[in-house]
Design brief:
The structure is a single chain. About 20% of the residues lie in helices and about 30% in strands. With about 350 residues, it is an alpha+beta fold. It has two domains: about 10-160, D-amino Acid Aminotransferase, Chain A, domain 1, CATH 3.30.470; about 170-330, D-amino Acid Aminotransferase, subunit A, domain 2 (D-amino Acid Aminotransferase, Chain A, domain 2, Alpha-Beta Barrel), CATH 3.20.10.10. Strands 1, 2, 3, 4, 5, 6, 7, 8 and 18 form a nine-stranded antiparallel β-sheet that branches. Strands 9, 10, 11, 12, 13, 14, 15, 16 and 17 form a nine-stranded mixed β-sheet that branches. It is globular. Bound molecules: pyridoxal-5'-phosphate (PLP). Pyridoxal-5'-phosphate binds next to α6.
Length: about 350
């Protein structure tokens, strides 16, 4: 296919994090123990049975990843094998079939390639968000797993998640409602975790925050994560920590940043429970991190009926987060050396 058609006439640098219909998506279906070959389709609509377990019982999971254009025109994915691995933890947790790694990668590559015209150009600040998803689609009524599944991958060009370009500082409000139970599905990327979070996000925004921050649902003491991102913290003693919890999504971005903090900045890093109220006075810098959020510094946290500032006025970007952001996006865009072979090029 001559995918190198001219780019769409979009105002790339003005894009927000919204759905933009593109030309192609990949779709494959599973029935009686096996996947069909699947292929690219043009319709953005899915036909599912009205009794489909995805609709009633949230038997579905998904992934989120990005493709970026490098300065030399290469199209780069960031650690896509980890998205495939994570989907194969979520699917079986909900009694859904695994998506073979080769099928996952091929579907992602085909969809990115077919939508070449929609991949934001280098330097625009935008990227191509990729959404693989697995849903139970077949006829059903009682609480049991579906007999048919669809694996689909669609893409959408996106700008920054938090509306501001570059490194903007956000605020979080501790949620009064829980996201995930200790032995529940919090560590899997399943839709059921997110529907309950819509109210938490709304409540956080009513307080003037960008997003909800969840504490552990057992003791409501330890930081879990934000609505769509993990949390990383630079402490005043010079160490760099991130919450250890079985109820949070194991963020690929966070795992990468922890490695960069240790190897490139020489920080002592630790994944451990972080008691918000007790440890807050020792917070030097904090940030939310994820595919969509990238690395976004957190300036203020609302808890116990008051705002608590981090890093002075709660509005400035600290040096540790700035360095980590530069390292992360430098690698993701192919501008810096990739010592860990995190990048995966999609041949166009
Ligand atoms: C709840 C939640 N936590 C964390 C993350 C970040 O994970 P990743 O870095 O793998 O995108 C996401 C998604 O991006 C998320 O939805």
């Amino acid at each position: 296919m001559d995918a190198k058609v001219s780019k769409k006439d979009l105002n790339w640098s003005e894009l927000g994090f919204q759905y933009q219909r593109t030309d192609f998506r990949f779709s494959a279906t599973w029935e009686k123990g096996s996947w069909n070959e699947g292929g690219l389709v043009s319709s953005e609509f899915i036909a599912v049975h009205e009794g489909a377990p995805a609709l009633h019982y949230a038997q579905q999971c998904f992934e989120g990843m990005k493709a970026q254009t490098a300065a030399d025109g290469r199209i780069l994915l960031f650690r896509p094998n980890l998205n495939s691995e994570r989907m194969n933890l979520a699917g079986p947790r909900l009694l859904m079939p695994e998506v073979p790694a080769e099928m996952f990668m091929s579907a992602v590559e085909q969809t990115v390639r077919a939508n070449y015209a929609w991949i934001p150009p280098y330097g625009s600040g935008a990227s191509l968000y990729i959404r693989p998803m697995l849903i139970g689609i077949g006829e059903n009524l009682g609480l049991k797993p579906a007999k048919q599944y669809e694996f689909r991958v669609f893409v959408s060009p996106v700008g920054p998640y938090y509306q501001q370009a570059g490194l903007a500082v956000i605020s979080l409000a501790v949620s009064d409602v829980d996201r995930a139970a200790p032995l529940g599905t919090g560590s899997f990327k399943v839709g059921a975790n997110y529907a309950g979070g819509l109210l938490a996000t709304r409540m956080a925004q009513q307080l003037g925050a960008n997003e909800a921050l969840y504490l552990d649902s057992l003791e409501r003491r330890y930081i879990d994560e934000a609505g769509s991102a993990n949390i990383i913290i630079a402490l005043k003693d010079g160490s760099f920590v991130t919450p250890k919890s079985d109820a949070i999504l194991p963020s690929i971005t966070r795992r990468s940043i922890m490695q960069l903090a240790k190897d490139q900045l020489g920080l002592v890093t630790e994944e451990r429970p972080i008691d918000l109220r007790k440890e807050f006075p020792n917070f030097q810098e904090a940030a939310a991190c994820g595919t969509a959020a990238v690395l976004t510094p957190v300036g203020r946290i609302w808890y116990d009926d008051a705002w608590h500032n981090i890093n002075g006025d709660g509005e400035s970007v600290g040096p540790v987060m700035q360095k980590l952001y530069d390292l992360l996006i430098g690698i993701q865009k192919g501008e810096l050396e990739d010592p860990y072979s995190w990048l995966h090029e999609v041949e166009i």
